Amino acid sequence: MRNDRASQKHLYDSYKVVMLGVCYRYTKSIQDAEDILQEGFVKVFTRLKQYKQEGELGAWMRRIMVTTALNHLKKNARLREQFTNLTPEMHPVTNDDPEIMLNAKELASLIRELPTGYQTVFNLHAVEGYTHPEIGEMLGITDSTSRSQYTRARVLIMNRVRNYYFDYKMQAHAK
Questions:
Q1: Chain centroid to CA 62: how far?
Q2: Cα–Cα distance between 138 and 154 in angstroms, integer?
Q3: Which of 1, 92, 100, 171 is least surrounded, with the fewest CB atoms within 10 Å of its CB?
Q4: Residue 108 contacts by C-beta under 8 Å, 6 or more apart in sequence?
């Protein structure tokens, strides 16, 4: 399939939407996600002979897209600094979280608002299922830094959900 343009187009058309979603989880803009997607598909096409058909093709492609997104983040010096220089104000975590239903799009938007380092670690751990030692190796950070960034990301997301819920209640009460 490496040089079979029709097969490449079919593969691209079959997976582009799902893989764009994967790439977008690691970026702040759709343009960056599209760039990563294109670069990722070039890698898929050039490495297709390495696919051993031991798992789903989509899962194999997802790993390539995630790695491509991480490499994109590492290349950008401004973003690279965000992995090690994050010191936001911490808020206590309590068990009295409000119950609120967010749709996937709203939750993805909240995650995208996180600082890049938090966003990346959160996605790798909570969405992709990587362990903190694996994340540390992928990003060139310690596993304790990965754990810390994940915890801080969760706190920020919970606080934003609380704020969202509070704003929703205030609007409903004002009516």
A1: 11
A2: 20
A3: 92
A4: 24, 25
**Look-up of token digits 């789903």:** 56
Q: What pTM was estimated for this model as a whole?
A: 0.69
Are the C-beta atoms of residues 113 and 160 closer than 8 Å to each other? yes
Token pair recorded at residue 120: 């990346």
- Mean pLDDT (the chain, rounded): 82
**Residues 61 and 19 sit within 8 Å (Cβ to Cβ):** yes
DSSP string, 11-77: HHHHHHHHHHHHHHTT-SSHHHHHHHHHHHHHHHHHHGGG--SSS-HHHHHHHHHHHHHHHHHHH-H
Tokens, residue 122: 């959160």
Share of the chain above pLDDT 90, in %: 53
